[in-house]
Design a protein that fits this description.
Structural class: alpha+beta
Helix content: 10-25%
Number of strands: 14
Order of helices and strands: HHEEEEEEEEEEEEHEE
Strand content: 25-35%
Number of helices: 3
Shape: globular
Radius of gyration: 18 Å
Length: about 230
């Protein structure tokens, strides 16, 4: 019985420790040059797409998580104040049942673009088995949305946390989900242009042309949560 109690106590301590390390950097990450893009308590460093200094009330922070509240009706894509070029970015995400969202990167802000997806490619965030988009080949969780289907599906069941990683380095683009590389492509060659020409973005001249920009968390009208948002400049 004493051994059982000790084991339970150690497990509980482990859970507490895990909770304490959310939205922080390890010593190793600090040495490697990572920076946090979310402090765990506020939305400092973020704004609604094309609305600098403003964050829609649909986005809020609770228990160390950025969450989207569909009842507020005041969202917009949550976008970094900073622009990034050549980086290693990661974020934990959790989607609601039948939910849809995305991580959109290399985003350009300009009044002529109404949304972040007009310029930035997207790593899909989705309940692949519950949302209609999951029936589309290159629209499932982890896919480079409408461009490349993941080499394997590594998304966890809906309601569980996933870790997405986007490496954008001098024209090489790699997407990882839960520790496994699932997409790799060049961002600066003729094949990239051909993929765009065959996609839903073909009539968006600003799409996928910049290898740097902001990062947006998509408002797709469904509950979604994010945490542990960090980046390292390469």
């Amino acid at each position: 019985m004493k051994k059982f109690i000790l084991t339970c106590s150690l497990m509980a301590m482990g859970i507490v420790t895990l909770a304490q390390t959310a939205n922080t950097l390890t010593s190793k990450e600090k040495k490697e040059g990572y920076q946090l893009l979310f402090d765990g308590t506020t939305l400092k460093g973020w704004h609604a797409y094309n609305k600098p200094g403003t964050v829609g009330t649909s986005w809020s922070v609770t228990n160390g998580e950025i969450g989207f509240d569909v009842t507020k009706k005041d969202g917009g894509d949550l976008t970094t104040d900073q622009e990034f070029e050549n980086y290693d970015f990661s974020v934990d995400w959790k989607i609601s049942p039948k939910g849809n969202s995305g991580i959109i990167f290399n985003v350009t802000e300009d009044a002529k673009y109404h949304s972040s997806y007009n310029t930035g490619p997207e790593m899909q965030v989705l309940d692949s088995d519950g949302h209609p988009d999951g029936k589309i080949f290159n629209h499932r969780a982890g896919d480079l949305y409408d461009l490349i289907h993941s080499s394997k599906e590594t998304a966890k069941p809906v309601g569980e946390w996933n870790t997405a990683r986007i490496v954008n380095n001098r024209g090489l683009l790699q997407l990882y989900l839960n520790g496994e590389k699932i997409v790799e492509t060049r961002y600066d060659d003729e094949n990239w242009k051909k993929m765009i020409a065959g996609s839903k973005f073909k009539n968006m001249p600003g799409f996928g042309v910049n290898m740097k920009g902001r990062i947006s968390l998509q408002d797709h009208g469904n509950p979604v949560w994010f945490r542990n948002i960090k980046i390292k400049k390469l």
